[in-house]
Amino acid sequence: MNVPATREDLMIVNMGPHHPSMHGVLRLIVTLDGEDVIDCEPILGYLHRGMEKIAENRTIIQYLPYVTRWDYLATMFTEAITVNAPEQLGNIQVPKRASYIRVIMLELSRIASHLLWLGPFMADIGAQTPFFYIFRERELVYDLFEAATGMRMMHNYFRIGGVAADLPYGWIDKCLDFCDYFLTGVSEYQKLITRNPIFLERVEGVGIIGVEEAINWGLSGPMLRASGIQWDLRKVDRYECYDEFDWEVQWQKEGDSLSRYLVRIGEMVESIKIIQQALEGIPGGPYENLEIRCFDRVRNPELNDFDYRFISKKPSPTFELSKQELYVRVEAPKGELGVFLIGDQNVFPWRWKIRPPGFINLQILPQLVKRMKLADIMTILVQDINSFSRLEYLKEVYGMIWVLVPIFTPVLGITIGVLAIVWLEREISAGLQQRIGPEYAGPLGILQALADGTKLLFKENLLPSRGDTRLFSIGPSIAVISILLSYLIIPFGSNLVLSDLNIGVFLWIAISSIAPIGLLMSGYGSNNKYSFLGGLRAAAQSISYEIPLTLCVLSISLRAIR
Q: What is the DSSP secondary structure assignment for residue 322, as one 8-state letter?
């Protein structure tokens, strides 16, 4: 076995995939000399789902619901590239109104993706406040998506030759209101972040990428434009109807993390400009090219007619992919998202190869983090790949629900689980023995477990033979009842909201302190030294841990209420 020769003062640190900043999709093996990064090896493959092979065994319409899982922050772009490829392969024309709607949805998705890049990026470098701010605007974007597509994240809205449905009544006005509101939100971000000296110290001059490096590594998107290259596929390829709008490509020339931040902030403002122009100039007409719905191949007209009339089995609209190949690309929020498609006179693609922007941009990470500090890894990494899964929203629970739900939910779940397991065990046993037992309580014997438990408590003698029966029996009751009584002194207002908790603090502690007495009574009543030592240990643990913990929780609650 060959042992690699390494310096004794070097340390190898494993970051991810369960590191909070890796989000379960990436692992880094980092070699450190103190705080300095000597080497970094990315380990990929934690998010592989076989999307390319799934595409090669589905028609385009069947595959569309899958593609939003490529990048769940920029779902509209994955749908756009999926329909653009067969549209160019079959030379299918998209109506003008459908193209405008696509542009609006794409730019809204770009804003949502950049917002959920900004929040985790700031959180990973130590600023928590912007993470909560970005959900304010992101939820408004998802409200617009939900009103137009019926879904907040996995939309399945794009179709070959157009979109699935037209914009609902009043949607355009709501979207214009959002645009006006979002511009004020971007101003807040710039005031809070851009001129913050701590933020500038963390990002300025960190992770510099030169012009030649960016080109040689095949970078795209904000990482490329932040290095001084004005390359945007919306301007270069002129797909959809982007050439009809007045907007500018956002770029910087420094190439550091600050430049990539400024590019993304500027792109959100430019996206608002594009959306406003598209909403004001959206034409009328159809939202889908209905000519592509005709079937190119009908193998058995009579059978299809029979299915349509009597079985209601209506085949989904599809068409043959001609025998040729092409590469299609769009400007996604992270960079160039492309698909290489090969047709073979079949409804299924012969080859479907995805060019993800985050995977390509990640290649340069080991070079960027070398000779940097350990804390700079997250500053650089989140600039490279920003596809994370976060909570959609947080809910607050007050009053009686806040107190009772944590108590009754586990009890109810355990009870239902036990009942189900016992019922299933009895069914299996009865099946093996080829009998149907008479000991059924409740419908289908579901309540038999409760009946067995009740019978056990009343029939079996669980009390020690040499102990004090009365003292041993009353001990557990005192321990449990004291805890339940402690919840009765919480003062609630008229709306079941905690009103003045400091009234019952000492009463709560006094009632809770009765529980150790019950434990001591059970231990002493057993007339057994080992049981008595166990009762002493349980009482000591309750006094030393649970009562101080209760006091700490109450003090925090008092401060929160005030």
A: P
- In 3D space, the residue among 40, 13, 120 whose CA is nearest the CA of residue 365 turns out to be 40
Kindly tell me if the per-residue pLDDT of 408 is higher than 90.
Answer: no
Are the beta carbons of 223 and 361 closer than 8 angstroms? yes
Model pLDDT for residues 349-373, shown as the tens digit of each residue: 999 999 988 888 888 888 888 888 8
Across 267-284, average pLDDT: 94
Cα 362-235-113 angle, rounded to 5 deg? 45
Residue count of the chain, please give it.
562
Torsion of CA 541, 542, 543, 547, to 10 degrees: 130
Task: Enter the pTM of the model.
Answer: 0.65
Inter-helix orientation angle 171-189/129-149, to 10°: 170
DSSP 8-state assignment for residue 346:
B
Q: How far apart are CA 163 and CA 101, in angstroms?
A: 8
- For residue 224, the surrounding DSSP H or E stretch is helix 222-225
Report the candidate in 66, 279, 53 with the shortest Cα–Cα distance to residue 155: 66
Q: Which residues contact 427 (CB under 8 A, 6 or more apart)?
A: 445
CA distances from 177 to 17, 180, 347, 447 (A): 40, 5, 43, 57
Task: Report the chain's terminal Cα–Cα distance, integer Å.
Answer: 65
- Distance between CA 119 and CA 133 in Å, rounded? 8
Return the HEC string of 280-312. Answer: HHCCCCCCECHHHHCCCCCCCHHHHHHHHHHHC
Pairing of strands 11-15, 27-33: antiparallel
Identify the DSSP state of 5. Answer: P
Here the tokens at position 520 are: 């001591």
Residue 286 has phi, psi (to 5 degrees) of -75, 155
Specify which residues 288 forms β-bridges with: 162
User: Residue 265: how many CB atoms within 10 A of its CB?
Assistant: 18
Residue 80 · residue 328 · CB < 8 Å: no
Give start and end residues of each alpha helix (H) in 204-240. Answer: 211-216, 222-225, 233-236
Q: Are strands 162-163 and 158-159 parallel, antiparallel or unpaired?
A: antiparallel
CA 562 to chain centre: 34
Rounded to 5 degrees, φ, ψ at 329 are -145, 155
Amino acid letter, residue 1: M
d(CA 4, CA 463): 65
CA 376 to chain centre: 25
Q: Using CA atoms, how far apart are residues 104 and 101, in angstroms rounded to an integer?
A: 5
316 phi and psi angles, rounded to 5 deg: -70, 150
Alpha-carbon torsion, ordered 262, 264, 270, 276, to 10 deg: -130
Residue 289 has pLDDT above 50, yes or no: yes
Q: Is 92 exposed, middle or buried (0-12, 13-18, 19+ CB in 10 A)?
A: middle
Task: List the beta bridge partners of residue 41.
Answer: 29
Tokens of 116: 């959920």
Residue 328: CB partners within 8 Å, gap ≥ 6? 81, 84, 85, 88, 338, 339, 341
Give the span between the Cα atoms of 107 and 181, in whole angstroms: 16
